[in-house]
Each structure stands twice: as structure tokens, then as C-alpha cells.
# Entry
Amino acid sequence: MSSQTARSNLMALPAIAWLGLFMIVPCLIVFAYAFLTRGLYGGVEYTLTAENFLRVIDPLYAQIFLTSVRIAGLATLFAILIAYPAAYAICLAPKRLQPILLFFAVLPFWSNYLIRTYAWIVLLNREGLINNALRWFGYDGEPLSLLYSEGAVIVGLVYNYLPFVILAIYSSLSRLNGELIEASRDLGASRVRTFWRVTLPLTMPGVAAGGVFIFVLSIGNFVTPALLGGGRFQMIGNLVYDQFLTANDWPFGAALGMVLIAVMIALLLLQARASARFSGETAEARHG
Amino acid sequence: MADALLIKLTGRTILVLVFGFLYLPIAVLVLLSFNESGLPTSWSGFSLRWYVSLAGNSDILHAAWNTLVVAVVATLIATVLGTMLAIGMETRKRRSTPLEALAFSPMVIPDIVLAVALLTLFSRLNVTMGLHTIIISHVIFDLAFVCSVVRARLKNFDFSIVEASRDLGASSFTTFWRVTFPVLLPAIVAGALLAFTLSVDEFIIAFFTAGAGRASITLPMQIYSMIRFGVTPEINALATLVMGVSATVLLISQWLNKEQMTR
# Structure
């Protein structure tokens, strides 16, 4: 090992130690817990079992799993449908404005998640702004119960994660080679056809990156279902929370956590493969 | 040409709609926090009374102090560790995939999983939980973000000036403090500010690693318990203050990052 490599490793060491001790080790412990038996008073007993994972596919919990997948899937779909045109519109803006627009699109993402969710309670509750506005426009029926519904949860997730999806799609749109679009147009393809056959396929890595991000964060979310779903919509995140803080079934909670990690790793790998394939195709398109 | 105009107009409309969607809910909250009556039903005049009532709420002041302690200490540790990690990773001859994955994972791991994992670790080790365990936990993701900001700067860094300094006889210690560090400083500060806001706003991990009781409650935990009891004018005022601080810190961070890119 050269002295330069040794020095580089030494610089990285404290952070590696910190992450190893406080991220890797705890995750390994949770992984081990997932195969242990629940103790009588909280705690765990050291009897190996696969029962915790079998419970995940028990109809009761499988239902919650499916609900989570559906809610996270819809949130992902809507976020992409909003973020793609938004990122495209930012790309159409004058070059010097683009960084500013992008910064302000992403700014809410870095601010307090709870507060951004709370803002929707203010808008959606029965005495909230939307119901008030309706009344002002002459609606005099029962106030609408907009809050505590699956729709509210989805709106909350889309709202909170949209900035990042815009960012991911923008970064692949802005790297798009303008010559390819021109070539397609010169060869007689319409704008619509050019979009479907050239622009969209080439920006799929950005869509995939943004999509995986919002899906993973949504499926493990427990704050939004608790606040906007009013506890009526249990998602995997809520289930994990319950096992650790109220039901005291840590092994089962650990198994659920591992399922979340498995979903995350699978999607990230899929996304990496898709990106590699797409960039491979782009390279071929350039050279071939 | 009509085509181009149409595209331009559509683009503008989309921008207005999307930015409306992103900022209107926040704007409503800010506006309501200055409403005398505190109700969304009617505007009864501009007032700071909800801010005054916040200042007299000892629970909130206590939580705000805890948050500040956690964010400052976690940021300091994370800035040192994250910067060192960034330098270590960028000066390597070959990219190390496991190291890349390790530095990336705190940013993508679902926070609920990290939260329960830390809770399990601390209770296994019989560590009494409190502000110190929140700090330890926050350093994990803080350092990853600092590292990624500093690495972006190092990617454009001209390492030949380091060689020049060494050739001219400066020790590696002198070279670091007189050459590398000043160039990196804006990125380090930008990363630190980002880490600070992340730490101030983080809820889930703090919630799981704060331990029992109210002693080490942080501002997001306080906000969460307030929200669960419904909409109150105090939350509006508190939310406005918290978002104001985050936005200001982020604007400074962005400005520093931009300065260094244009230099």
C-alpha cells in the first residue's frame, strides 16, 4: 500500500468508525433480532425462529403491506406526473434563471417535514381553509372530510417529496444532448414523437432515481399516515413504530424493518441496472 | 413561431402552478400566524400576540434550547468527520465501492429503520438515552451530507497546487492548512449549515433516541405532540419561526456554494 493510500484511508477512518459503530452494527443487531423470539416482558429470547418473517405474509399484515405499496405507488406516480413537466419547464426557462428556479423548487425539501405536513392539516381539516373557501363560494352543505383519508396521505407524501423528484428529473433533462433532439426533428419526427422516442427514454434514469427515492421514503413513512391519515391508514412504518414503542415485539418490528431495507436495496439495484443500460444505449447511439 | 410561443406559455403556466402548489400551503401558515384571531375563518388584523405567547411558553423554550445544543454539537462533529472522509475518498487512487456505499447509505436508509436500530443498540448496551444519544445519531446523516458537499468541491480542486506547495518545501501539515483548507472552507461551511438545518428539523431519529421523559425533548418532538392535539395559532407561529431559520441558513449555504463555484 502506497503512503498516499494509507494517508487517504487514515483520513476516512474516523467517519468509517462512526458509521460502522452507529449504523452498520445497529443494523446487524436488528437483523439478528429478526430471527429471535419475543421475550415475555419486551426483550428477546435467544431461540432462533423464522416466525417473524412468516408473520409478515400473514393476511392481516400482508394487507398493511399492500396498502403501503398502493399508497407509496400512487404517491410515486403522481409525483412523477407533476415533477416531469415541472423539470421540463425549468429547462425551458432562460439559462441564468434555471439555478434559481431549481433552488426554490428544492428549498421546501430541506425545511421541517412535520411543518410541511401540518400545513396540509390547516388546509384540509373541517374548519380548514378549503372548507372555508367552499363556503365562501356559496357551498352550504356539510363540511367535507378531506383530512384523515388515503387521499390526504398521498397528497402529503407527494407534497413533501416532490422537490427531490423535480431535482432528479431536472438533472437528467439538463444533461440531455440537444443534438439528438435536433437530429430527430431534422429526420422529420414531430415534437410529440421526438419526446416519446428520444427525450423520455433518455431521461428515464432521472425518473427512476426520483421514483425510487419517493417510493422508498413513502413506504417506510409513519409521520404522514399518523397525521394526515389520522391513524386510520396503517403503513409499514407505523407497524414498525408500534412494535418498538407500544406492542414491545421487537423481533417482529426488526423483521419488518429488514423487509423495508430489502425493498430499498432491491429497488436501488434495479435502478442502478436500468441507468447503466440506458447510458449504455446512449453511448451506442452516439458512436454507432 | 406560434409553436415556440405556445411552448413558452405552457412552460410558464406549469411553473406558476407547481410553485403555487409548493409554496401556497406554507404561505397560508405564515399568514395565519399573524392573524389576531388565530382562526382560518376570518382575518381580524395583524398581530404578534401568538409570537409573544410562544416566548412565554417554557416547554417550547426548553425544547428549542435542546434542539440548538443537539444541532450545534452534531454539526461540529459531523463537519470534522465528513470533511476528513471527503478528503480521504477524493485523494484515493482508486474508487472503493464499499466506501462509496457506506458514505451514501445514511442518505437513503429509511429513517424509521435507522431509528429503531439505534434504539436497539442503545438499549442493548444499557446506555441511558438523552441529548447525547440524539447527537450521536444525528452525526450519522449529518456527516454524509457534509461529505457529499465537500466532495463536490474537491472534484473541481486542482491537486497540482498541493504538489507545488510540497515541491516548494512545505510540510504536508502546512500544505493542508495553507493551501487545501482555505480552498475548501466555503464548501465546508456550506455543508455544515446544511447539516445544521437537517439536525434542527429531524424528528423520527430524535424521537426514538431521546429516551423517556421530557428532559431531552427537541423542537420537532414538541411540534409533533402539539400537532396531534390539533391546529393552534401557536403552532403556526412556531412553524413560521422554524421555517424562517431553516430558509435563512440554507440561503447562506447556497450563496457560499455559489461563490466558490464562480471563483
